[in-house]
C-alpha cells in the first residue's frame, strides 16, 4: 500500500469474495464483486481490471470512488449558542450495488452534534470509528443503479457554547465534486468575507 501511494499507481485490486458489509472508511472503495459467482467469476475479475475508464482516480488512497458529487449546497445559520448546517447533495452513482454514502463532520469534543435526514427514504447510520470526526453513513431505502442521480439533504445542529472560534465555516468533501456552494446567514449584522482554497 505504501508503495502505491508513493508511486501514485493502483497495485492492489479489491475483490469481494464473501457477503460482508463494507462500512466506514472502506465504504467508498470500488471493488470487484464475485460473491455467488462461479463460471462468471474469472470474466468479472478481468473486466474489473480492464475497466479503468469508468473509475475516478485522485491522488492518495483509496484511489477510486463509487459516487461523484454533481453539486453540494451548504447553508449555515449561525446564532450565539449553535450553528445549524444544512447540506444538500446531488450525486451521480459510478458503480451499482450499494445504498450507503459515507460522510463525516469535524467539530469540538466539548460540543454536541445532532443529525437528521431531511429526505424521505433516507436515514442516518452512526459509525464508531474512534477518530476526531463524527463518521456516519447516509442510508437509502434502495440499492443504487449505475448512472442513477440521487439527492439527499442532511441537517446538522452543532452546539457552539464554548465559542472556540468565530467567522470560520467550511465543508468537507471526500469524493470527486463538480460544484459546491456555501451560503451563510447570521443573527449578527457584522460583515464577513470568505475565501475559497482549492
Number of strands: 10
Report the oligomer.
single chain
Low-pLDDT segments, ≥5 res:
51-63, 191-198
Spatial order of strands in the largest sheet: 6-9-4-3-10
Rg over CA atoms, rounded to whole Å, is 19 Å
CATH class of the largest domain: Mainly Beta
Mean pLDDT: 74
Q: Profile the largest sheet.
A: 5 strands, mixed
Structural class: mainly beta
Total of DSSP H or I helical runs spanning 4+ residues? 2
Note the overall shape: elongated
The total number of structural domains is 2
CATH superfamily of the largest domain: tricorn interacting facor f3 domain
Percent of residues in beta strands: 35-45%
N- and C-termini, Cα separation = 27 Å
Could you say what the CATH topology of the largest domain is called?
Immunoglobulin-like
Order of helix and strand elements from N to C terminus:
HEEHEEEEEEEE
Indicate the CATH architecture of the largest domain. Answer: Sandwich
Assign a percent range to the helix content. Answer: under 10%
Explain this structure.
The chain is mainly beta and 198 residues long. The chain has two domains: 2-50, no CATH class; 67-186, Immunoglobulin-like. Helices cover 8% and strands 38% of the residues. It is built from two helices and ten strands; from the N terminus they run H-E-E-H-E-E-E-E-E-E-E-E. It has helices spanning 2-7, 41-50, and strands at 15-16, 32-33, 67-78, 82-93, 100-106, 113-117, 122-127, 133-140, 149-159, 177-186. The strands form three sheets. Strands 6-9-4-3-10 form a five-stranded mixed beta sheet, with no helix packed on it. A three-stranded antiparallel beta sheet has the order 5-8-7, with no helix packed on it. A hairpin with a 5-residue loop joins strand 7 and strand 8. The longest helix is centred in the N-terminal third of the chain and has 10 residues, at 41-50. The two termini are 27 Å apart.
Amino acid at each position: 500500500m505504501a508503495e502505491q501511494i508513493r508511486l501514485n499507481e493502483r497495485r492492489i485490486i479489491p475483490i469481494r469474495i464473501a457477503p460482508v458489509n463494507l462500512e466506514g472508511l472502506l465504504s467508498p472503495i470500488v471493488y470487484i464483486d464475485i460473491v455467488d459467482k462461479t463460471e462468471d467469476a474469472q470474466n468479472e475479475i478481468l473486466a474489473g481490471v480492464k475497466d479503468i475508464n469508468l473509475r475516478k482516480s485522485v491522488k492518495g488512497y483509496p484511489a477510486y470512488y463509487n459516487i461523484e458529487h454533481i453539486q453540494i449546497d451548504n447553508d449555515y445559520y449561525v446564532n450565539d449558542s449553535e450553528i445549524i448546517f444544512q447540506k444538500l447533495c446531488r450525486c451521480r452513482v459510478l458503480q451499482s450495488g450499494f445504498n450507503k454514502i459515507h460522510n463525516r463532520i469535524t467539530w469540538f469534543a466539548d460540543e454536541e452534534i445532532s443529525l437528521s435526514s431531511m429526505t424521505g427514504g433516507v436515514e442516518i447510520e452512526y459509525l464508531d470509528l474512534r477518530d476526531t470526526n463524527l463518521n456516519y453513513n447516509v442510508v437509502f431505502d434502495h440499492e443504487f443503479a449505475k448512472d442513477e442521480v440521487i439527492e439527499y439533504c442532511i441537517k446538522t445542529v452543532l452546539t457552539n457554547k464554548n465559542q472556540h472560534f468565530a467567522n470560520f465555516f467550511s465543508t468537507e468533501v471526500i469524493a470527486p465534486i463538480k460544484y459546491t456552494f456555501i451560503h451563510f446567514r447570521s443573527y449578527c449584522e457584522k460583515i464577513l468575507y470568505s475565501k475559497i482554497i482549492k
